[in-house]
Each structure stands twice: as structure tokens, then as C-alpha cells.
Amino acid sequence: MAIVTARLRLDRLVAADAPALFAYRGDDAVARYQGWKPADIAAAGAFIADQARLAFGTADSWCQLAIRDKATGELLGDVGVHFPASTDEPIEFGLSLRPERQGQGFAREVMAALLDLAFGEWAYRRAVGSVDPRNVSSMALLRSLGFRQEAHHVESYFFRGEWVDDVIFAMLAREWRRHP
Ligand SMILES: CC(C)(COP(=O)(O)OP(=O)(O)OC[C@H]1O[C@@H](n2cnc3c(N)ncnc32)[C@H](O)[C@@H]1OP(=O)(O)O)[C@@H](O)C(=O)NCCC(=O)NCCS
Known about the structure:
alpha+beta, protein-N-terminal-alanine acetyltransferase activity
């Protein structure tokens, strides 16, 4: 499977991606607000192998896609899509870009393509995002796409040795359709 946008191609991660995946997912700045941080290239490879066994779109699972430069094939990052058990439940996304590829609109381009699919072909009615409010770029990304903040849970989540806040964003299909 592949999703093609103006500058990007999203497709499955392959074994050869392990060193590049480890290089940015193992980076402290990229991993700071993420549940998964590979300890070494082998851990990145194991993650890719697990993903290869999972059909894209499997209900009740997180499916990871590579984000590649369409022209060069360079791995720029990855995006996880959480497909819930049914389309009545919200779909969710998790993005990571290599540090040197942030700030160029790639995350927005990926999210726009996935929201088009989520609210079109895949027929979801609601998308959600859950963000640590210190993750300024993620907050900005969701707001720029038209997600609404629905909640701010204060010190609701114990993560890496501290109680952290969790801000919940959401968007409905009809809100995406009228987003400029
Ligand atoms: C979250 C994350 C994916 C957002 O990436 P990003 O690069 O900030 O987002 P975008 O790709 O949409 O880029 C937006 C920026 O690019 C700029 N930009 C440059 N060219 C652009 C273009 N052609 N189109 C749109 N925006 C463009 C925008 O002005 C904006 O800049 P600003 O932040 O100074 O306002 C990234 O910060 C990341 O990987 N973080 C680490 C992992 C992480 O925490 N993930 C979230 C876990 S919940």
C-alpha cells in the first residue's frame, strides 16, 4: 500500500529502514513525548518486523507507515495510525519526523492526506489527538489542521517518572470538510 502526496510517499517500513529509524527515534528530542524509544538498531528492526506481520488497517491496532521523500526515497519519519475496533470510535495518529526534516510542513502534509482518507474512504466520523502541552510543535500541528481542544487533564498520566498533563484534541468529519 502507498499514499502519495505532493512531496511525500507513505508506505510500509522495510528491514533496510532500521538504521535510519533508530537514528531519529532513538534521538532524545524526538522520543521525549513518545511511548516507544528503540535502544538500538536491532530494536528498530524488531519493531519493523512486527509491523510487517500486521495488515495495514487491522482493527484495534496501531499501524506504522514510513514517510519518505517522494523524489529520493529518503526516510523522513514515520506515522502511526490507530485503527479502533469500529468506525464509530475515533481514529488517532502519531507522527515523528527526523529533527532536520521538521519545520518544513511535512507533518501537516501527512496529516492532511490521512484525514482525507480517514473521513472519506475509511468512513470515520471522529479523529482524536492526545498531547503533552509541553510538546509545542504537536499542539501547533493539531491546531493548524483545525483540531479543537476538548480537555486538559492536569497531572493525569504517569510517564517516565513524573505526573504529566494530557491535552485532548478532536475533529469531526464535517469539521474537516469545511476546514480551509
Ligand atoms: C510533531 C512533529 C511531527 C511536528 O512536525 P513539524 O515539522 O513541526 O510540523 P510541520 O511539518 O507541519 O511543519 C510546520 C512548520 O513548517 C513550516 N513550513 C515550512 N514550509 C511549509 C510548507 N510548505 N507547508 C506548511 N508548513 C510549512 C510552517 O510554517 C511551520 O513552522 P512553525 O512551526 O515555525 O510555525 C515534530 O515536531 C516531531 O517529529 N516531534 C517529535 C515527535 C513527537 O513528539 N511526536 C508527537 C507525539 S504525540
